[in-house]
């Protein structure tokens, strides 16, 4: 009995329920939300340490043993993802104290946020492919409601695209599960892996694999079906944007990592070759799209896509080093991306706009905030000694070792263009002097408590970025451990089914 | 919305309690036979919807006494609460716990965590449907 596997799902569900019960009092909701997120973080640290000791931690819900009941499984990758979820949750919960408007809070901002977190944690921990679908839907419902809080025109437009594409993805996902179940007669992922390796490898398996790739690819905003992301992510409240940017697409990426290492590992020369090209195009289109944008949050949103490409490259190369690089990249990107969105929220608070043309002069009045941004932005671009440098370094080295020249070249080229986009934000928002027509009354305001609350998570996340860069070795060890487990699915199968495959 | 006709008025007074009783019946029979919290919650909200169409949103709110949002919250809370008794016993979450109670007269009632979960689902479904109905009706009545 290891409760730590289920607690990261139960805690946010419980927090969501309690905040719903406390809907009359915004203050009580805020307190519950912060306490709940901290509890989530603590439980995720517990999970991380026990996974480090035991390798795999398994819990059979309701005591129905695999493959019949729903099994929760945590390997290193899941544990890392859940830990990052906990960290983002705390950052967003604290930031929301000052950024969420009272009307949003009355319309269920906190219950929805924690429901979303439960969905994210559930997706990371479940060992059942249909259960994964259910968690995806939980996430979709919560994220849709969060996205349209406020009900402005642009939000509706973005949300419609978001929901349409995600429903399409869910439909494909569900059909793929149906076909797979018809083939092997089980839904437990470990059991599927065993049955599929025993079954004769036919063309149908590849078809199902590609269906999963398309379904998760849409969720992860991979090429070519990514356009819902830049249409919707920048429209919601800024804390919501940051939460989505940090976690949601990574759930799709996680699902790809899980399914294409555990289940579809028979015809790597087909599936993973396909993934390499997807990764390359995702990287390039994302970064080129960002170069053409002139709105703070839009640039950041489109950049998510190109970063997804890097992570996918790690999976596609499918060597120990590449997978470790992919996991390292996920750790780095979740922290940095969330942080950049939170910073964009602070500049919005100061100057009331996200348009690069109207922004300016932040460095002069807020040098400290500018440094915080610069650290995250340069880390995203991959400058040493920040976290992004090591993430990209590992991936590119893996690319060279695997002799995937096109992909490696693309990764280097995209890194350079990322730097261009970040420098563009830097020079427009922070460096250039403030345009005359912009209302500058708020920029020189004193440090109010609400502004300090906005700063707090940003400072913590920036320090974390620095720490990952300066102490890359332990993070790399964990990533390597995760990669090792992904490459040897027999450990996972044995932990779930209790027999050697 | 136009208030209901005489026939609807009279019928609603009889049908609403009957339908509520039926929903409780469905809820309790649900563990081993067709029924359960979800369908029972829908039947119960059907009863209140009939009342809503007959007497309007204000009277329905009076009749319910508790805000639908709180009903959802309580329902979710009960369903969540059914997770934990197994933990105290040292078993994985959600493992069903049974507490049979002997009634005078030789009948036995099986109290259990699945029942608690079902009651939670019942209230959540009932609360959600009523929230939609009442909100929609109120919007229309304002216009």
Notable traits:
heterodimer; A: 501 residues; mainly alpha; two-stranded antiparallel ribbon; 2 strands; 77% helix; globular; B: 143 residues; two-stranded antiparallel sheet; 6 helices
Class by SSE composition of chain A? mainly alpha
Approximate helicity band of chain B: 55-70%
Order of helices and strands of chain A: HHEEHHHHHHHHHHHHHHHHHHH
Shape of chain A: globular
Number of domains of chain B: 1
Shape of chain B: globular
Name the structural class of chain B: mainly alpha
Count of helical regions of chain B: 6
Q: What is the makeup of the main sheet of chain A?
A: 2 strands, antiparallel
Let me know the largest β-sheet of chain B: 2 strands, antiparallel
Low-confidence stretches of chain B: none
Measured between the Cα atoms of the first and last residue of chain B, the distance is 9 Å
What's the total count of β strands of chain B?
2
Summarize the structure in words:
The complex is a heterodimer of chains A (501) and B (143). Chain A is mostly helical and 501 residues long. Chain A has a domain at 267-489. Chain A has 21 helices and two strands. Chain A has helices at 7-21, 26-54, 76-99, 102-106, 109-125, 129-147, 153-184, 189-198, 203-220, 228-232, 238-262, 268-291, 296-317, 320-351, 362-365, 367-381, 387-401, 405-431, 449-470, 472-487, 489-497; strands at residues 57-60, 71-74. In chain A, strands 1-2 form a two-stranded antiparallel ribbon. Chain A is globular, with a radius of gyration of 22 Å. With 143 residues, chain B is mainly alpha-helical. Chain B has one domain. Chain B contains six helices and two strands, in the order αααααββα. Chain B is globular and about 55 Å long. The model of chain B has no long low-confidence stretch (mean pLDDT 88). The chains are: A mainly alpha (501), B mainly alpha (143). Chain A binds chain B through residues 1, 3, 6, 10, 13-14, 16-18, 20-21, 23, 59-63, and chain B through 69-70, 72-74, 76-77, 80, 83, 86-87, 90-96.
């Amino acid at each position: 009995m290891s409760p730590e596997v289920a607690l990261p799902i139960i805690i946010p569900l419980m927090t969501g329920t309690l905040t719903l019960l406390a809907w009359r009092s915004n203050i009580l909701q805020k307190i519950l939300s912060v306490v709940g997120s901290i509890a989530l973080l603590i439980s995720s640290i517990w999970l991380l340490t026990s996974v480090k000791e035991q390798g795999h931690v398994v819990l059979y819900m309701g005591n129905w043993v695999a493959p019949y009941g729903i099994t929760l499984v945590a390997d290193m990758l899941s544990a890392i993802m859940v830990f990052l979820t906990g960290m983002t949750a705390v950052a967003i919960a604290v930031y929301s104290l000052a950024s969420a408007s009272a009307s949003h809070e009355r319309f269920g901002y906190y219950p929805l946020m924690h429901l979303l977190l439960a969905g994210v944690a559930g997706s990371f921990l479940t060992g059942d492919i249909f259960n994964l679908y259910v968690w995806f839907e939980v996430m979709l419902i919560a994220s849709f409601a969060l996205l349209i809080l406020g009900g402005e025109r642009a939000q509706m437009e973005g949300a419609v695209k978001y929901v349409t594409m995600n429903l399409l993805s869910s439909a494909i996902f569900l059909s793929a599960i149906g076909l797979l179940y018809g083939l092997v007669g089980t839904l437990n992922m470990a059991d599927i892996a065993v049955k599929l390796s025993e079954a004769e490898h036919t063309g149908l398996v590849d078809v199902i694999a590609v269906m999963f790739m398309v379904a998760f690819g849409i969720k992860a905003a991979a090429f070519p079906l990514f356009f819902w992301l830049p249409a919707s992510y920048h429209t919601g409240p800024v804390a919501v944007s940051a939460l989505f940017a940090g976690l949601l697409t990574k759930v799709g990426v996680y699902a790809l990592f899980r399914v294409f290492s555990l289940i579809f590992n028979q015809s790597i020369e087909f599936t993973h070759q396909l993934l390499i090209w997807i990764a390359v195009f995702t990287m390039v289109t994302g970064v080129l799209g960002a170069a053409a944008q002139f709105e703070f949050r839009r640039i950041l949103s489109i950049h998510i896509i190109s970063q997804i490409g890097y992570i996918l490259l790690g999976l596609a190369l499918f060597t120990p080093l590449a997978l470790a690089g992919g996991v390292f990249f996920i750790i780095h990107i979740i922290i940095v991306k969330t942080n950049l969105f939170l910073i964009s929220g602070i500049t919005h608070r100061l100057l009331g706009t996200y348009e690069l043309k109207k922004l300016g002069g932040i460095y002069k009045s807020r040098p400290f905030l500018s440094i915080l941004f610069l650290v995250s932005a340069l880390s995203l671009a991959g400058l040493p000694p920040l976290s992004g440098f090591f993430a990209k370094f590992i991936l590119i080295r893996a690319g060279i070792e695997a002799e995937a020249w096109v992909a490696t070249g693309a990764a280097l080229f995209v890194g350079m263009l990322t730097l261009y986009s970040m420098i563009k934000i830097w020079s427009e928002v922070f460096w250039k002097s403030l345009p005359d027509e912009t209302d500058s009354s708020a920029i020189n305001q004193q440090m109010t408590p609400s502004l300090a609350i906005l700063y707090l998570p940003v400072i913590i996340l920036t320090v974390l970025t620095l720490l990952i860069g300066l102490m890359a070795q332990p993070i790399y060890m964990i990533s390597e451990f995760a990669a090792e487990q992904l490459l040897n699915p027999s450990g996972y199968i044995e932990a779930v089914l209790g027999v050697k495959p | 919305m136009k208030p209901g006709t005489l026939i609807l008025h009279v019928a609603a007074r009889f049908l609403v309690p009957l339908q509520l009783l039926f929903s409780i019946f469905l809820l309790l029979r649900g563990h081993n036979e067709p029924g359960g919290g979800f369908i029972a919650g829908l039947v119960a909200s059907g009863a209140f919807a009939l009342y809503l169409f007959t007497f309007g949103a204000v009277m329905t709110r009076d009749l319910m006494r508790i805000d639908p949002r709180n009903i959802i919250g309580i329902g979710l809370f009960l369903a969540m609460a059914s997770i934990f008794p197994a933990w105290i016993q040292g078993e994985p979450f959600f493992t069903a716990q049974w507490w049979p109670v002997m009634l005078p007269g030789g009948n036995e009632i099986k109290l259990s965590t699945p029942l608690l979960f079902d009651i939670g689902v019942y209230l959540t479904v009932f609360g959600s449907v009523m929230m939609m109905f009442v909100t929609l009706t109120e919007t229309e009545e304002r216009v």
